[in-house]
Amino acid sequence: xxxxxxxxxxxxxxxxxxxxxxxxxxxxxxxxxxxxxxxxxxxxxxxxxxxxxxxxxxxxxxxxxxxxxxxxx
Length: 73
Prior knowledge:
mainly alpha, two-stranded antiparallel ribbon, 4 helices, 2 strands, 55% helix, globular
């Protein structure tokens, strides 16, 4: 089984609104990641989850849910 990848589209809150760009860029910088990589190719869900951040957990959960839906089809 290949691991789900978190992409920019997965960075949305419960209300479906995207995370703010400024906060997302700061989060990525703080954790040694690049928002351009997130937008283009993504990061493995486990890397995002390892940050321990609640919003990162949500984004990884969104990616995992999408991955499972795609596998079921």
